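Below is how a single chain appears once it has passed through the pipeline. First comes the sequence as given, then the structure the pipeline wrote out for it. We keep one example in the README because the format questions we get most often are answered faster by looking than by reading.
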Amino acid sequence: MSDIVIIGGGIAGLSAGARLAPHMHVTVLEAEEALAYHASGRSAALFEPHYGSPTTVALSLASSEFYLGGEARYCSPRGVLFLARADERAAFEKDCAAMDLAEITVDEARALVPIINPGTVAFAGHGSGAHDIDTDRMIQDFAREIRANGGTIHLKSPVNAIAYDGAWQVTAGGVQHSAGLLLNAAGPWADTVLEMAGLPRISFTPCRRSMARIPAPGGHDVSGWPMFFGTGETWYAKPDAGQLIVSPAEEEPMAPQDAWADDMVLAEGLARYEEMVSEPVTRVTANWAGLRTFAPDRKLVLGRSPHHPALYLSAGQGGYGFQTAPAASQLVADHILGRAPALDPDLVAALSPARFA
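Resulting structure:
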């Protein structure tokens, strides 16, 4: 019997499991054949602490020491650049204020990304605080931490049934696992887990985001380019293994599933990207999609369920799972271990599942 069963082998479940493993026996159940198979494995992998809603920003700022302090094992500098047409001034100023960007000239922006089209781009804002995250290394380190402390991780273990008889009985992949506590870190399937446990849904909404990988435009060395966005996040592009990944940045509500890119949505997003650059897209070398899952108020859901004292949630990351993971996992662990959270009490309350009671 374990002390806690964690459903979900993505960044939410593994980061919490690594925090808890030195203090209790942890069992992680992952439905797929690999960890971080869904949203966590399809992330843009950027740490920009000013990116997101106010509660997300607060969690990201609280995660800064983990990412940027000490050895800074998982981050490397990237920077961000926001681009706008002449008719997008108001939206551009809003982005600059939200992201703490410095307005620069178009010529200065072209020095950073030489394919920027000066005939289309009228405004540019730059921030140097964004970093790439080595997400694979982070996932594997968390998994090693769990195993090193005696915890177990079960792949190809989709949950079939959940019951409570004084302890949780979770059947996954034909095997029954028992534990006193249950952590729902199931991403798009968080509501499904709640229903299987006999608890009310929160009404999480998984939303598709598509990605395309294209060859380095014009044969440029893109490795030092910042991640660059259309203002209002109507598209974005990011260097990736010598190529660019370009996303239409859509949010298309979908049922929980292994998501795939929509060809028309990709084409529309690539057209928005092409409008702002001087090099056309000649081919796509790969495409994929992930699901970003939001709670109804678009805040993360972290803490004890108001409907069951032995069930906790780490869900509704909305695409900010890696960015917020250090602080979010610490908060979840504090709740489970009965410690006073280090975060501001108002923030803790704003993220609590009790707001949906």
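The longest helix spans residues 321-337.

See the next section for the split statistics.
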